[in-house]
Amino acid sequence: VMIILVFIGAAIDYGRAMRDRTTLQNALDAAVIAGAGSSANTRNAVAENMFLASLGATDLNDIRVVWSSGGSTYSGRATAVVATNLMSIVGKKSIDIGVSATATFSSSSAKKVCIMALAPSTTQALLINSGVSLQAPSCRIDVKSVASPAAIFNSGSNLNVDMICVQGASVIQNAGAVTALKTGCATASDPFAGTLPNVTVGACTVSNQNYSGANVLSPGVYCGTFNFNGTGSLTLNPGLYVFKDAVWNLNSGWSVTGAGVTLYFANERSGIQINSGVNAAISAPESGAYAGILIYEPNGLPRSPIVFNGSAGHNFKGLFYLPSRDATFNAVSSIISESITLVFNTIILDTLDWKFQSGGRSIDRPDAQINVILSK
């Protein structure tokens, strides 16, 4: 009789465990679909919220979920413990269950916002002067200003971009109608505010240096003024470079290279001055906490200028996120990049030739539709 009761108890407890497993699976399915349809920066938070809402009240114990992204897929693996009733008589007090789900996603528009001017009420938040050539047909420029004028377009420019989306209605077009321009446009939201890694700025490791010739620098906290004089080469080892009241002055004749590099400006008094004749080829890390981030700063800094003057050529790969900076690009002969996203407070472009497409830390267009296919 006892053996029969044990078998009956096992059937009841395992049946309940399978029902709970189905509940867990349904919640995870909904979560990975929601996460896959969200931007990369918010994906885990969206999935977590959907998982909890879909799971609802449950008697499951020790619920654990691991989210993972890979290329065009988003996955989840959930485990939980089901307490037994009748089986506890013979010492089996719980049953472990686990489920997994993967969503494959694709965008109906591969076109991204590559350049964004964040200032909401500044006049000429975007100023494009003569001699500007932008060859970025898969990229959109978003200007969030609603001032009058929000943007100014002067004559003699070639703007081969997907769209220039200006939130305000007032612009000045001194060369006639700009083909790609749309005013009163719904601009994308800033996906990076409050989402990029916080940096604890420690004591200075390098201070006030003058360089010439061949130089190799390593990650650390840089403080004071750094002059790169004459002609020379600068190699940046991979890692995080923290600028603490620090300015690097790169003068004509210098070449700068570095892969897996992130530059962090801790305050408005920190930055880089790139002068004419500098050749730079710098790329952000491809993995880890700083993946895709080339140059950034914390939110909430006072406004300050940053200037990139004429150069011998730039090849940047990664995100420039400097929301407090009024950026000016003067006579930059070329920027060629397969992966770049630029976010500033305001932007002035003057006599330059740029060719690039969106970076890994990209900004989705508000009108992009995400298609998701669920698989088990």
Descriptive overview:
By secondary structure, the protein is mainly beta. 13% of the residues lie in helices and 51% in strands. It contains 2 helices and 25 strands. It has helices at 2-36, 43-55; strands at residues 61-70, 73-83, 94-107, 112-117, 126-128, 132-143, 151-153, 158-166, 171-173, 181-183, 206-217, 220-236, 239-250, 254-258, 261-265, 271-274, 278-283, 293-296, 304-308, 311-330, 335-337, 339-350, 352-356, 363-364, 370-375. The strands form 2 sheets. Strands 12-13-15-18-20-17-14 form a 7-stranded parallel beta barrel. A 4-stranded antiparallel sheet has the order 1-2-3-25, with helices on one face. Strand 1 and strand 2 (73-83) form a beta hairpin. Helix 1 runs antiparallel to helix 2 (43-55). The protein is globular and about 85 Å long. The protein starts with a helix and ends with a strand. The model has no long low-confidence stretch (mean pLDDT 88).
